[in-house]
Amino acid sequence: PAAPKSSVALVPHDQLAALLPAIDGWQRGEISSGSISLPAPATNATTAYTREKARVDLEITDTGGATEHVEALTKIAGSDFTQQASNGYMKGTTLAGFPAVESWNHVDHLGDITLLINQRYVIHANATGLDKIETLRELIQKVPTTFAAKR
User: What is the DSSP letter of 72?
Assistant: First the structure.
């Protein structure tokens, strides 16, 4: 069966791959990119950055604004949601002017940040072995977001 058609033109995955920056002090791994059709059409690009014992998996996705991809994120990103635990937290926040969800486990040194740009683009970074959440915040902000304004 044919994949469902998106009502908007998605950014080609190779163009998303070109947005994954080289970052001083980090070793960028191989970039992979592609298209998915379920639960709705989307394109994405991903890579891993490593530095000593730290690893950050970074992904950029163009969801085309499909609610299947962004619905749960829109409820928490940028909100005042906060969940505390003995080993860390998860919260809605704003980063680089965009609604975001951030979590940090200070015991296991695990971090996760997801930015939602224009209810369509998702930049997600998942980290292990980090010293502090600020390192992940700085890294995710190295991804250019100007491409989103052109669409």
Answer: H
What's the number of CA atoms in the CB half-sphere (13 Å) around residue 38? 2
Give the angle 79-84-88 at the CA atoms, nearest 5°: 110
Beta strands in the chain (DSSP E): 27-28, 32-36, 42-51, 54-62, 82-85, 88-95, 98-105, 110-117, 121-128
Q: Quick one: what percent of the chain has pLDDT higher than 70?
A: 94
Reported as half-sphere exposure (CB side, CA atoms, 13 A), residue 88 has a value of: 15
**Chain segment 4-44, per-residue pLDDT in tens:** 444 789 999 999 999 999 999 999 999 999 999 988 999 99
pTM of the entire predicted model: 0.92
List Cβ neighbours of 148 (8 Å cut-off, separation of 6 or more).
117, 118, 120, 121
Distance CA 143, CA 121 (A): 12
* Measured torsion, CA atoms of residues 121, 112, 78, 23, in degrees rounded to the nearest 10: -60
Mean pLDDT score of the chain, rounded to an integer?
A: 93
